[in-house]
Amino acid sequence: MNSEIPPPTGVSFAGSSGEKIPLMNRRRQVLDYFTRMFGNSSSGSEETAKDGYVEFGNIGEATSGRTLGPFAGVFAPVCLSMFSAMLFLRVGFVVGNAGLIETLFQFAIAYTIIVFTVMSVCAISTNGAVEGGGAYFMISRTLGPELGGSIGTLFFLANIVSSALCLTGCVEGLIDNFGESGYLVPVDSYLLKDGHWWRFTYTSSLNFLNLIICLIGATLFAKTTVIIFAIVVICLVSSIISFFLKSPFQIEVPAANIFVNQTNTTAMLNYTGFSLTTFTENLGPSFGRDYTSNNIAVTFSSVFGVLFCGVTGILAGANMSGNLKNPSYSIPRGTLGGVLFTFISYITLSILAAATCSRDLLQENYVFLMPINIWPPFTSIGILTATFSASLSCLIGSSRVLEALAKDCIYGRLLQFVNYGVWRSNPVAAVLFSWLLVQLILFIGSLNLIAQLNSILFLLAYVALNLTCLGLDLTSAPNFRPSFKYFSAWTCSLGLMGSVIMMFVINPFYASTSFGLCLLLILLLHFFSPCEATEWGSISQALIFHQVRKYLLLLDPRKNHIKFWRPQMLLMVANPRSSCPTITFINDLKKSGLFVLGHVKVDKAETNLDYTDKAISSWLTLVDHVKVKAFVELTVANSVRDGLHHLIRLSGMGAMKPNTVVMGFYDDKVPLDYFTRLDSVYKTSAFQGITTNEEKFPLRLPNEEKHLSASEFVSMICDIFQMHKNICICRHFDLYNKTDIVKNIKYKYIDVWPVNFFGPSMNDAYDTSSLFMLQLSCIIKMIAVYKKHTLRVHLLNTIDIQSQRMQLKQLLSTLRIKATIHEVTEWSQIDLRTLDSDRNTYISRVNKLIKNQCAETAICFVYLPLPKEIRGSDLQNVSYLNSLTDLTNNLPPTVLVHGVSAVTSTTL
Q1: How much of the chain exceeds pLDDT 90, in percent?
Q2: Which of 47, 79, 285, 808 is 20 to 30 Å from 455 at the Cα level?
Q3: Structural domain of residue 115, as residue ranges?
Q4: Which of 363, 212, 438, 200 lies closest to 192 in space, CA to CA?
Q5: Domain check: are 445 and 593 in the same one?
């Protein structure tokens, strides 16, 4: 037996960088990993090591706090939450108004939505470890902080409303039992007074009792769920049996139905027993009025809103995920079992009620099950236990969702009090805040009105769950492989569409408001949330990847047309510390095209194979800091020239590849550090290390040798030309200040010089380079900062100046470029014969001519001539670079431009 084993690949553990670790430590690390992944522990498990392999026994044993199985942890809570106030209090209301056929139709719609949503829940919950937070955890870890946080907030509110709904139902049951003419008090006596404010007092008292239980005994309640469920089932069975044992008789109108009692004090309601006549009369709809909501008219949508609130408890099991022994096993089985059991119960009660109770009884007495029961206290106990336990469960669930939102720092300091208010793992502050919100909802008073709001909020949560599962399925992510297989994109889509449609059927105003609130929360969280949730994973990234890949394949480079040309820039950055103004300018110049920041690390590639992985994070942080829309490409090469070849060939993908390469100018200026300058808008400490060695992007020292020679720089210009890319060389951008251009009124022009000063010709203004230069100047003029500036095209004063002016004016008009033509009369003073005989003097005079025209110029575009010899000697290259240097000395920020392909179009 080996006492040490090498770490495996595929899973990262401490000590997995290549060294061997002791076997016992190895076991502990692996067990801790699987504990975090599956919520289980190996305590008490048998472990053996044979031939260097670790064997695990009973990895599925429960950790402390995770003790519940499918029945106690999921099935019972789901059934209790779905029964809530509907089972004993509103089955008659639904059947009496909608009729049996429409009731069965509504149950079919509701349970279709529910089953499809449960399939989505099961798929997500069996795709990995589900931690505390239930549905919020599943949604947020898939949709990301913005969508997850907004939906989680509305799910929290849904639990709040559901708790208030159940409390209202509980008090309604208490009044019908112990109020005036209550079924459990003597005639003409009562224990509880009735009225709007009396009911508010009772619900508030029960809500306060919920608060006390949550603060001192929430764990005990979780352990008694099975007992409560057993009591409710016994009461349900007694109600079903009573239909068969009870003989026909008359039932009084409940005292709560003041609208009937005021007009007919002797009215009686008929329980007919099993009767074909009664069954036939109850088949069709006959909408009446709701005596618990100021006698308002009942409609299909209001009935469905009440019915649907009785099936919204499917997430009760998922909410218990933090206490489940094996969430991935328990949630699917327990939830589907609960849905099936409640469906059978509701359908059975609906059919029996329609076959035995008159329409008046169902419409005018919502607690008709009580007098029918062979022992009325059974129904009373069922009402009170089902509603009160469901209200308590919702209060506990809402506080846990709020706690999860606070821990995730979704709202930053706004919910910080929740994290501080925790005592012995009980989120006291979250419980108190949830209790207060429930208290506010209780002011509504009517169960049926609260039910509509409750249904809308839960349906919105179902929309998010189905959307989550649909997105995961459509992205075809390899890591989405749930063990629950009975779902598809179709089930998710049907659940999603059904939820949205029924939201608007129930209440268009509530539905629109909830979607609007959700959108508002998404925007607020996107712009203001301090949440750093990169480890969650956002489905938006997976969907974007899926769509981008598809459209990149459709973007065929063979179908490119000049009409839709746009600049796709590769900017070569030696050091971003000194290049921030250039980066900002090229970001404006790209015109919604591709923008790539390229950098070459000069070193041996074999010893720097991991350079990109180590450096990319700092570069992406730079992109965020400078606020540009750019990609980053890094490479390691023996020389800058070789690295340039790498980047030109490999940057981009498919038809999205750079067509223009931008470089800074080669000169002897000392580079400025824009990250430390006090007057710099790019000032930041983000790239500052504790020591000099830890500093990001260190600048070259003044006496330090450059990685690039003058001759190599010129060779790079020629290489770019030979690789058929447009060329831009930026000089004097240390003078470029975008803020100053906006504020300083002296800047009036953007200048274009469409002339090859190294060999002037009458046709220079119409060749590819000049047209490319005009296109770039037009693009920069579209930017808001430069819209007030005049685009000025300089025309040299030649013999045929009028003809030249007309031609240039016609060209600008054809290209739809709004610019003024400025005649440079000083050009006549320059002797072109000195171009060859005294080149330095000629170029100095041209430089002076340009400089005299640029006193009020913000940006200057100048024609870039190429060297006469593409593969010239070092001496020729240096001479060419010196000429470019003399040509552009002391100018404003200048872009030297050379185009190789047509970029403008005059056709529609």
Answers
A1: 44
A2: 285
A3: 70-246+300-355+377-528
A4: 200
A5: no
